[in-house]
Amino acid sequence: MPNGPDKNALSLVTAMQDFTDGETAARTLAAAVEARLREGIARRGRASLAASGGSSPKRLYEILASADLDWSKVTVVLADERWVEPGLTGSNESFIKASLLTGNAADCAFIGLKTPAAAPSGGLAEIEDRLAGAPHPFDAVILGMGTDGHTLSWFPEAEGLDAALAPEGPRAAAVTATRSDVTGPFTERATLTLSALQGARLCALLISGEAKRAVWRDAAGPGRVNAMPVRALMRDPGLDLQTYWWP
After folding, report:
1. Alpha carbon of 143 to those of 78, 97, 123, 242: distances in Å?
2. Which of 85, 138, 181, 236 has the fewest CB atoms in 10 Å of its CB?
């Protein structure tokens, strides 16, 4: 998968949905996510949402947190994490708890990825045990994309990237990225894998600004997946990938 052929790559890319502003995009996606979670609860008694950090989904999470939903039957799984303790700068867990796990959504179960291990590779077994408790496949997945073409913690050419992009196998991987303006000092990460996303009933990619729009278009074209890992999402025929963009 990571270095597979580019043949027919474009045919698997869903069209980008353009919105005039972030508020409209957030409210539209919030309605779709809420619907998927309701369907999951009705179908199997529980639902699951994989949630990413970053600035793009903040307003979405604030809207979702006020949804009149039986959140006690929802499990929120952190999509990826910098290897820092909750409460410290850079923690995605802290961001999710402050933006999503509030209001009505305070009753949901939460699965974080940071463990007491010194490095992500040492925490994978515990992370896998945690993920086993989440309803799978996910009812909804919320992702972002960087200007380097990464999503989750799938950074270009990173150590551990091949494991993260495997369509079958463990649900979590340890990744060590090359430090850049995008990673900052947080090069060691734990992340959900492409395998973990298989069967997701909604996989939403949130991006804003002309720079990321150009990156998305580049990624939608031919090229190596390892160079722009978001291509792994775009080219996976089993994912219902939907891109939400606003200026």
Report:
1. 11, 17, 23, 10
2. 181
48-106 pLDDT, tens digit per residue, is 999 999 889 999 999 999 999 999 999 999 999 999 999 999 999 999 999 999 999 99
Angle (CA) 229-188-102 rounded to 5° is 85
What gap in Å lies between CA 117 and CA 166, rounded to an integer?
A: 24
Give 142's contacts (C-beta < 8 A, 6+ positions apart): 29, 33, 49, 50, 51, 52, 57, 60, 79, 204, 206
Name the amino acid, one letter, at 28: T
Residue partners of 130: CB distance under 8 A and separation at least 6 = 111, 112, 113
Q: What would the DSSP string read from start to end of 180-235?
A: -TTTTT--EEEEE-HHHHTT-S-EEEEEESHHHHHHHHHHTSSS-TTTSTTHHHHT
Residue written as token pair 């949905």: 17
3-state secondary structure of 53: coil
Please give the Cα distance from 169 to 214 (Å, whole number): 32
CA gyration radius for the chain? 17
Which domains does the chain carry? 16-246 (3.40.50.1360)
